[in-house]
Amino acid sequence: MDIRIEGLTKTYGAQRAVDAISFEVRPGEVLGFLGPNGAGKTTTMKMVCGLIAPDAGRIVVGGHDVLADPGAVRKRMGYLPESNPLYEDMPVLDFLRFVARLQGVPEEKITERIGEMVRACGLDAEKHKKIGQLSKGYRQRVGLAQAMVHDPEVLILDEPTTGLDPNQIVEIRALIKELGRAKTVIFSTHILPEVEAVCDRILIIDRGRIVADGDPASLRRQAQGREVVRACVEGGATEAVLAAIAALPGVEQVVPAGAELYDITCASTGRDVARALFALCAHWGWPITELRPLETRLEDIFRNLTLN
C-alpha cells in the first residue's frame, strides 16, 4: 500500500514543526525516517496515522485521504509510538487479545494471530506475565506485537528498538526487513547502522524540512563531491610524509589515520592524486602498501545535513 504526502505542515505556536514536506513511500518499501530531536519526525508520523491533524497539506494512504476517511486508513495501519503506552495491569496475552478485538480481527482468528505475534516478537517466555512486570525491552516487543496483530498493510514504527539489547535489536531488524517484503514500513531511529541494515530508502528531516532523500549509496554519492583515499606509506617520518603529500597538486587535506596511515582529501579526482603520490613515494623510496578510497559514512552525511 502506497503513502503519498503533499505539502504537509504543522505549527505549534510560533514553531513550525513540519514545514510543507512532500514525499511518497512505495508498497513493500522500508523507509528510514531520520532527524535530530525536534526535527519533526514524530509529528509527521502522528499525522500520517491520523492522530493529529495537519494545518495544511494532504496525506493519502492506499488511495484513502487520512482526513476524509480516517477509519479506512487506521484499519490498514499499525502504529508503535515512541512512548509505547501499554496497560501494565494486563497480562501480555490478554492485552494482545484486547487489541486484536479493537482492530477488528475475526474472533475465530484471534488466537492464531496472537500466537504468530508471540513467536515473531520473542514473547513466549513472558506471555503469561503482566506487562508491568516486564523489562523495558520486552515491553517494546509487546508494543511491536500490538502494532502488527491485525496484519496491517502499513507499519509506522517510532524508535522500535529503544530499550532492546543487542541480540534483540538484531532480531527486530530482521523482522522489520522481512515485513518490508510484503508491507509498507516507515520507522524512525537514531541508530544509523540500523538504517543501513534495514532500509531500502532514507529520508532525513531537519527543522521540519526534508534535507535528503535516497538510498544509502545515492546519499553517499551526493555527499562525497571530494574523494577521500587512505594510503599506507612506509619508511618516512610522519611529519615529512604529511608535508610532502600536502604539497601534491590536487590534495586539499591530509591527516594521519594511524601508524603509517594517511587520509587524503582530494580536490581533484583520486586517480590524479594517486599518480602523483606514487611518483612522490618512488622518489623518496617510501613503499606504498595500501591505497583505497574511503566511503563516506552515513553518520558524517547526517551531521553535515543537520548541524548547519
Question: In percent, how helical is the residue content?
Answer: 25-40%
Q: Major sheet: size, sense and barrel closure?
A: 6 strands, mixed
Task: State the secondary-structure class.
Answer: alpha/beta
- CATH fold annotation of the largest domain: Rossmann fold
Average pLDDT for all residues: 88
The geometry reads as elongated
- Tell me the name of the CATH homologous superfamily of the largest domain: P-loop containing nucleotide triphosphate hydrolases
Q: How many separate domains?
A: 2
Q: Mind telling me which CATH architecture of the largest domain this is?
A: 3-Layer(aba) Sandwich
- Rg to the nearest angstrom? 25 Å
Q: Show unreliable segments.
A: none
Strand order of the largest sheet: 6-7-8-3-9-10
Chain-wise SSE layout:
Elements: E1 3-12, E2 15-25, E3 30-34, H1 41-49, E4 56-61, E5 64-65, H2 70-75, E6 77-80, H3 92-102, H4 107-120, H5 136-148, E7 154-158, H6 166-179, E8 184-188, H7 192-198, E9 201-206, E10 209-214, H8 216-224, E11 227-233, H9 238-246, E12 251-258, E13 261-266, H10 270-284, E14 288-294, H11 298-306
